[in-house]
# Entry
Amino acid sequence: MKLLFKTLFLLWFSISFSQSITKDFEAYNGFFNFYYDESSDKIYLEVNELEKEFLYISSLSSGVGSNDIGLDRGQLGNERLVKFSKYGDKILLIQPNLGYRAISDNELEKRSVEQAFAKSVIYGFKIVEEQENKFIVDFTAFLMEDRHGVAKRLKKFKNKEHIR
# Structure
């Protein structure tokens, strides 16, 4: 009976990983692993550590060719301390409120302060695939957002000569 159970478990385990959504995608390894699906032009992020804080910084990879606008290549945007958290069928990118902290050994006091001041949800990702403690999310829409406020800055300039 044990042998049958082990065989069924190994079969299920190998089938579930061979049917992974990312198996045919181009893999990129780094601080966060991600996958590129050329056929749909989508990027999938692998989240394997929840509740671990990291630094998130947006930047401009290229400028718009006008110093007057102030959107220069390599310009850094806001830096944020964030973490991934799982809520239901979503992975949320959360920015804790670091403006208020309880400097105490009392866990109830720490929790009270944390609950009293809101966190910011930067983005919510639908989980595309889940295997053990690894989550695959569609990252494409997040990457396409204007986190740096380029559109807002361009709207300030009414002179069409700046925008070609």
Remarks:
- The chain has four helices and eight strands.
- Confidence is low (pLDDT under 50) at residues 4-18.
